[in-house]
Amino acid sequence: MSEKFLVEKLPLKIADQYLALITLNRPKEMNPLDWDLTVKMKPEIDKLSADKSVRVIAVTGAGKAFSAGGDLKKYITLMRDEEGLRGFLQDCNALFYAFKNASQPVIALVNGFCVAGGLELLLSTDFAYAGESAKIGDGHVNFGQIGGAGSQSRLPRKIYPARAMELLFTGELFSAQEAMEWGLINKVVPDDKLIDTAMEFANKIVDKSALGAKVIKKLVNKSIDLDEEAAVFLESQMVHHYCLTSHDCHEGLGAFDEKRKPEFKGR
User: Fold this and answer.
1) Cα–Cα distances in Å, from 96 out to 56, 123, 141, 232?
2) Based on the domain organization, do 147 and 71 belong to the same domain?
3) Taking Cα atoms as reference points, which of 108, 120, 98 lies closest to residue 61?
4) pLDDT tens profile 218-249
5) How far apart are CA 261 and CA 252, in angstroms?
6) Which of 134, 155, 165, 213 is surrounded by the most beta carbons within 10 Å?
7) Residue 166 carries which DSSP code?
8) Which range of residues forms the domain containing residue 77?
9) How many domains does one find in the chain?
């Protein structure tokens, strides 16, 4: 495992089921998302996505930052390298899509500073909890930069476009409470309760259908970019297939009818 990030599996209330906690692990540098990290982390996310014992994935940062974004010193050289820059952006986006397309719910646990690439990482997750001291913003414009992995594309889909524009244009950092009011954060909790809050969520869903959760996530993500009629059609088609082919669908109804606890098979 790269020393730049750590992965641990935290046990849930059901045996052999886990929350996978990914911790960015360069606290002195405020957990930069450099090229080496993106390349090494992506296959680890793919492994977790395929691991049927992992019910939730959470990502956080060590020290006083979730992530302050890219390594600006390395950018000085990278911004003059046409092929290198293209490769870096491709690998960043590949990592963020690995989070977005993971089979499980993915939660950002925002501790401290979450800026630029850190915000883009947050935007690639399904939802986020933030510590009370968190400071969240884009920040690219402060250095004459623009985001290349979700700032302009995902942020206006997550919050009101006018709010997104304000955040992008000013480069300012906003409090966790403000970010929650804007819809960027689901819940603000004491800084030392972030992991506990993620575990609480994971334990709420661990005895529910993992396959159902996977299909729900896929439907939500695909529907966001469709008009309502196309989204409802897609939903009906996927549900039709799910109901005809899924063990969990029939098991859930059978358990209800027989007044027993369902035994789901997983993804």
Assistant:
1) 16, 9, 21, 27
2) yes
3) 108
4) 999 988 888 899 999 988 898 888 878 888 88
5) 8
6) 134
7) H
8) 5-205
9) 2
